[in-house]
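User: I'm preparing a small set of examples for a lab meeting where we compare how different chains pack in three dimensions. I only have the primary sequence for this one, and I'd like the structure in token form so I can line it up with the others. Please keep the answer compact; I'll paste it straight into my notes.
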Amino acid sequence: MRNSAIVIPKQEETKVSPRCRKLVKAYKFERSQQEITEVELNRAKIVMVDENGNTKRIPILAEH
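Assistant: Understood. Below is the structure token output for the 64-residue chain.
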């Protein structure tokens, strides 16, 4: 049986600037807001009103 030595390099701590942290936080927040908006749009019913005031429901196919 052979023994192998697996060498895992140690990650050096990199200093992350506060600006970078702020961007990451903002990106994650906006991504979650986009997901909420997409869910709300999927549940929405879209209706069109013509010049006579008649309403017509517009079917939208959900993406699978």
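A couple of notes for your slides: Helices lie at 18-43. The longest helix spans residues 18-43.

User: Perfect, thanks.
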